[in-house]
Amino acid sequence: MSNPFHKKIFRADQWSQAVLFLEDKECVFTNGCFDLLHPGHLIYLSEASSLSANLVIGLNSDTSVNKLKGANRPINEFIDRANMLSALPQVACIIEFEEDTPLELIKILKPKVLVKGGDYAIEEIVGRQEVESSGGKVITIPFVGNYSSTNLIEKIKKS
What we know:
The chain is an alpha/beta fold. The protein has one domain: Rossmann fold (3-Layer(aba) Sandwich). Helix content is 37%, strand content 19%. The chain has a 6-stranded parallel β-sheet, sandwiched between helices. Strand 5, helix 6 and strand 6 form a beta-alpha-beta unit. The termini are far apart. The mean pLDDT is 92.
């Protein structure tokens, strides 16, 4: 059975294909691990997508998640995380990155809007200078509720 979402997913070695897929469309860019998709993610992505018709998600590779979150992460492999996110109608595409930050991907995509969660100060957001210097804007979206993949994992361990 073919995967209908696969055409929206680009691996780290396919950045040039992702750029062609987006065809110079204005986009809003966000990034993250999205290891266990939860209501906080869905609210955040819905808010982010309201800023542009083309929501692009830079998704950490499995190796990158492991470096950032620890030996037992990710819970879900890249392709599973990408498939779940790409099933959301507001998501234009998912692009894997293997580095610690998506800075190089941001430089290539040149998004009109860069979005991160409210736990970041605007000055700390990777890619802020690049986006602002090209006339784009950087926005933070406040958290709703106390959702996090780490909290979910701890809850599961206790049950």
